[in-house]
Structures are given as C-alpha cells and as structure tokens.
Amino acid sequence: SVELRTPRLLVDAITDFVSTKPVAYTHSQGKVELRDKIAAVYGVSIDEVFFTNGVTEAYYFLSRFFADTPICQADARRLADAKTWPNFLVPEPFYPPLVGIFTELGLQARYLNRHTGNGNLLGQPITEQIMKLADADTRFVALVTGDNPTSVRLRAKSVENTATAVRQLLEMGITTYFIPDDIYIEYIPPEYRNKYITLSEDFGIPVVLLGGLDKNIGTGFHSGWFIVHIPDCLGAEFKTTEFERLSILGAKYLGANTFSQTAADMYFGHILQTGEIPPEAQANVNAVRCWSSALHDSLSAEFEYPFGEPSTHLYHWIKLPTNVG
Asked: What is the distance between the alpha carbons of residues 244 and 87, in angstroms, rounded to a whole number?
C-alpha cells in the first residue's frame, strides 16, 4: 500500500476556512474566485467554467445535458420504442466510467476501433470511422488523452482528425460536440493547456474540455472541472440556447463540496504564483511512482502528450503504438 498525505498547504487552507468563515453555499458552477483562476489557465471566460467533485460528477452532469436535448424531448415517443437513441462515439478500449455513466442515463455508445488485442493499429482513419458511425442522433465524440486504462498514446493528428469529423457533422446539420478528457493539469506544459480551446476556434466546433487535479497532489479533495467553449462562428442564438440549458441544469444538479473548492482555490493560487506543487504533494507522486514501478517493472513512466514533448507522469504508461488516427 502507499501512504499519501494531504499537503500542508491544503490542510491549512481548510483549517482557516472552517475557523473564520461560514460554510455557505457557493454558485452552482463553483466559487467565483476558483473559476476565475481556472479560466485564466485556459484563456476562457469564467462563465464557461464548471467546477465539479472530480470528472466523474462532470460525466453525470453532461449525460443529463446531452440526453435532455430538444430532439430527445420532441421525439420522446419515438425513443420509447428503443429503435433509436441519442448516441456518442468513443474509442475502444474505453475509460469505463465515461461509457458506464452516459449509457446508464440513456445514451448509446458506439465504438471507434483503435487497435487490435496485440497492439496493431487497424489502419482505418478515425475521421472515416466517425463519419461511418455517426447519425442525426450523435451528441458527441469523446477522446481520453493518455487513455485510461489502455495508455494508448494520442498524437495531435488524431485529435485534429476528430475535430475535422465533428466539423463535417456540423456542416451536415448534426449538432455534435467534441469532448476531450485531458490528463491532470499538472502534467500539461503551460503553453499547451489551452490547445483544445484553440482547436475549437480553429475548426469552428463546440468543445467540452474535461480536466482536474491529480488525486495524489490534492489528496482528500477530489477536484475536477469542465469547460464549455462554443465559438462565435456557430451563431449567437445557438450559444445562448446552449448556455441557458447548462445554467438550468447546473442549478438542478451541480454543487461541488465547499471544502474541495477551497482546497482547489488555494492550490491554484499556489501553483500560479510559484509554478511548483507543494513538497508533500510531490512526495505523494514519488511514492505512487515507486509503488507502480515495483508492480510494473516493464512499464514506462514516459507519457507523450499530444501537443507537447513526452513528460514524466505519476503513472507508468504502457508502450502501445501511437494512434496515427
């Protein structure tokens, strides 16, 4: 087992908060101060940021958002026949919570084949696969950067090909989002943290970017968020309608733990000012790295981020072939 300690910085922040401030409700999207820091990291507006108790809560919320569309409401009787359902596309193998949560709440998963059991790529470009599987009820295409649990590495070309396909679907009149679930923000080179937002603008597609803090760095405080970015080229009416729906659903279903938000707020303040993670947090990362090394001597600790150079990650990533997409 690995003994992980909550960083002193976070313990002190919570102690001070409990001692001096009432434990009050925050905005359903999260503390304004916290969302302002997250928005600054990605170069987006604060209204586009939604803080959650880890990315898992974001999945639950987004499953409601994508299942509760005007098309679903208008076609409720047709959907009741189970002949067609709102669907999403995701590479296989997949991150289990992503598929499990969305299918549990009424969406159908359709799988993009990425590689065979022995690691050989199938060769069919991801763009072609998306266009073959998508239809009028496709709500989004999802990619998990680093791909938990398979560790298949993505390349920028794979991401761009996915964006190209989503753009083609939009031009066909199918409202489809691109959902990248990014790795923990600590492991993304600063100059690439807003890459998916830039991609949204460049390709003219709506993007929901999922992110979070490493659990070992913020031990005891599960922190995640998602950013909804809709470029102006898609029209003011569409953008307004989508954010009204997000606001209504957020008031119903969102409400991250106040302590978690306070810890995340303090962490972001520290990381932005110093550019470093707290010493205890680094000790946690080192402990997990040693533990995983003992279990998986044959695995590599190098993780290739699609938009940057390979960087050392706390996990040991399997050296499967790069997805040439």
From this structure: 22
For 81, the 3-state DSSP assignment is coil
Of 191, 189, 169, 198, the closest CA to residue 180 belongs to: 198
CA distance 316 to 297: 9
Select from 180, 285, 259 the least CA-distant residue to 267. 259
Residues 6+ apart with CB under 8 A from 63: 101, 102, 104, 105, 106, 107
Q: Name the DSSP letter for residue 165.
A: H
Q: How far apart are CA 182 and CA 144, in angstroms?
A: 6
Beta-strand pair 311-317/300-303: antiparallel
Which pair of structure tokens corresponds to residue 113? Answer: 């084949």
Output the pTM of the full model.
0.81
**Rg of the chain over all Cα atoms, to the nearest angstrom:** 20
Q: Which residues contact residue 97 at a Cβ distance below 8 angstroms, ignoring those fewer than 6 apart?
A: 56, 59
Look at the alpha carbons of 72, 73, 75, 76 in this order and tell me if their dihedral is positive or negative: positive
Tokens standing for residue 179: 């959902």
Question: Do residues 269 and 37 touch, judged by C-beta distance below 8 A?
Answer: yes
Distance between CA atoms of residues 184 and 66, nearest Å:
24
The partner residues of 109 in beta bridges, in order of sequence, read 88
Q: What is the pLDDT of residue 288?
A: 62
Residue pLDDT, tens place only, 26-68: 778 888 888 998 999 899 999 999 988 888 889 989 988 998 6
Question: For the CA atoms of 11, 2, 98, 132, what is the dihedral angle to 10 degrees?
Answer: 130
- Specify the 3-state DSSP secondary structure of 124: coil
CB atoms within 10 A of CB 146: 23
pLDDT at position 150 is 57
What span, in angstroms and rounded, lies between the C-alpha atoms of 37 and 215?
A: 19
Residue 316: DSSP 8-state:
E
| Burial (0-12, 13-18, 19+ Cβ within 10 Å), 109 | middle
Counting beta carbons within 10 angstroms of the beta carbon of residue 192, is it exposed (0 to 12), middle (13 to 18) or buried (19 or more)? middle
